[in-house]
């Protein structure tokens, strides 16, 4: 039995931080006594530190396997420990791809018994090439988050529709990277004044909205839920709103980079640094960023999901055209999304809904994960507010990202995962 006491424990029922005594037994929260004024003997007194549920991130590029130089499962675990992420759904675009039951078993073997839970997505199509479906029947019976070809769109409509039916029947996620490559292939930046001035190929927002519109129409026809990765454009939000009103179950993600940055930020940086902003989908206008943040507050966007994507210097410190897509963030998951919270005027209730509760529900784990409640796994973070300070990096093997200049305003003190203290 472990006992933790703090004057600021998140109380989901009242939507406030309150004095509380948490008892942890066999990895789970045994009880929470709110209103408890003093700490008992054999209790760790956390003072005025904030205590809330740890995060669940539905969009992580784990690397490992043949890309251990970018990130391996040890460094991934270490980054999540500091970031306060207790469960990660990892995308299938590893090298080699997670596109067969054997590869899923390899992933599960390498990530078993780690302090942070890692759930793989299986690829929808072999090698993510969009041509041949993988062994869905077998894969969907395995402990996976669902199916996803993330990194690539499912341009073949027949395969998309069949995958939608299969994931609906299995009760698993179909996580979609929405991009019409006919207008965005080889693009490196948002189609804007900046792309035209610099001669870089720009991606219009239609690259996202066209695919989203096709897929929402099918979700409505088949009454099947769909999950949209990393939204980038305001126009996509109006499509989602329209279909949600019709009763379509559509969930979606907000990344820290689409929430905190816009194409205007490029102007303030040296062209040499631009490749650090290169990501797919591209970072768009300030008005898009603000609309995405409003949508997170209103619940139109369902979850925070980071799209953590490590790349080595060799692959990232290059001219825009040849640099790899992707931004690193996992080990600063809490401070980055705390900045999103501050700038978007999200309440802490909104924050925990987006970072923990909704992702748990979408994985079908909402009875054991995502809440600070008796009976749930003891997955919690302990943190404090600080004066603005530089973000700390160093746990991931890579360091790519456009985060220079951003200041953290919270600091992680402890992270508990399934009843074990894994940080602090
Ligand atoms: Zn993607």
Keywords for this entry:
alpha/beta, 2 domains, 424 residues, eight-stranded parallel beta sheet, single chain, eight-stranded mixed beta sheet, 23% strand
Would you mind describing this structure in some detail?
It is a single chain. The chain is α/β, with parallel strands linked by helices. It has 2 domains: 2-50 and 377-423, Urease, subunit C, domain 1, CATH 2.30.40.10; 55-362, Alpha-Beta Barrel (TIM Barrel). 31% of the residues lie in helices and 23% in strands. The chain has 14 helices and 18 strands. Strands 1, 2, 3, 4, 5, 16, 17 and 18 form an 8-stranded mixed beta sheet that branches. Helix 6 links the parallel strand 11 and strand 12. The protein starts with a strand and ends with a strand. The relative contact order is 0.16. The model has no long low-confidence stretch (mean pLDDT 96). It binds zinc ion. Zinc ion binds at residues 150-151, 177, 229-230.
